[in-house]
Amino acid sequence: MIILSNNNFSGQVPSSFGNAFSGHIPRTLGNLKQLVALNLSYNNLDGNIPSNLGNLSRLQHLDLSNNKLRGIGP
After folding, report:
1. Cα 52 to chain center, whole Å?
2. What is the β-pairing status of strands 37-39 and 44-48?
3. How far apart are alpha carbons 74 and 32 in whole angstroms?
4. Cα–Cα distance between 32 and 56 in angstroms, integer?
5. How many CA atoms lie within 13 A of 41 on its CB side?
6. What CA–CA distance (Å, rounded) separates 21 from 41?
7. Three-state SS across 1-58?
8. In the chain, at which end, N or C, are there fewer CB atoms within 10 A of the end residue's CB?
9. What membrane topology was assigned to this protein in its record (predicted)?
């Protein structure tokens, strides 16, 4: 599901949503208490997996595969 409401995006929506995010997974994702699915697979993410993702009690699906992440998932 892609929900693009209530944001500050501007311009045309690209025909392809391919991505290549890089850097660390922000710890602030652990504050999204209503999050039920997080798929960050096939990016260029590195660093440690934030331990506070384990606090997401509603999270049913987590896919961090095919990145350069370290550590044990939540």
Report:
1. 13
2. unpaired
3. 15
4. 7
5. 7
6. 10
7. CCCCCCCCCCCCCCCCCCCCCEECCCHHHHHCCCCCEEECCCCEEEEECCHHHHHCCC
8. N
9. Single-pass type I membrane protein
Q: Is 60 in a helix, a strand, or coil?
A: coil
Helix (H, G, I), strand (E, B) or coil at 72: coil
Whether the Cβ atoms of residue 17 and residue 41 lie closer than 8 Å to each other: no
pLDDT tens per residue across span 9-57: 777 656 566 677 889 999 998 999 999 999 999 888 999 999 999 999 9
Rounded to whole angstroms, how far apart are CA atoms 56 and 25?
15
